[in-house]
Amino acid sequence: MKKLLYFTADWCDPCRMSSAIISDIFDTNDGVKNHYSLERINIDQEPDRVAPLGIRGVPAFIVLDENGQEISRRVGVIPKQKMIEWLSNDVPSKFRLALKAPGAMLTSAISPKCKIDKNST
What is the CATH number of the domain that holds 88? Predict the structure, then answer.
């Protein structure tokens, strides 16, 4: 199972917004719950874990694979649908539909092999 590290601070207003978004996603989206564990890290209480990862601003998010290796990271408040899309890009394509909110566009499911002919009009 992959892990989402969520770096936060008690004094951070954007972190409060992100906490509500993250809680909502993990409470209501089975696709996310089935592929990710969530670890909240308070930067003031655990500075020894923050510095080695180069976290300089909060809220911050890092996705780790099953071996604890970083896959990707984001900093700042991420709207709910964008967060779901970001997380869905890090799971096998056959599971992406389970992560999408009802009615969402499936832009992340487009094959990376598709090419655009820049010479066509």
Answer: 3.40.30.10
Could you tell me which residues come within 8 angstroms of residue 38 by beta carbon, excluding any fewer than 6 positions away? 3, 4, 6, 22, 26
Number of domains the chain is built from: 1
> Among the options 4, 6, 7, 15, which is catalytic?
15
pTM of the model: 0.73
Does the active-site annotation cover 15? yes
Q: What pLDDT digit, counting tens, does each position of 2-12 carry?
A: 999 999 999 99
- Indicate if 114 belongs to the active site: no
DSSP E strands, 9-90: 36-42, 60-64, 70-75
Q: One of 12, 55, 58, 60 is an active-site residue; which one?
A: 12
Q: 72: domain range?
A: 2-109
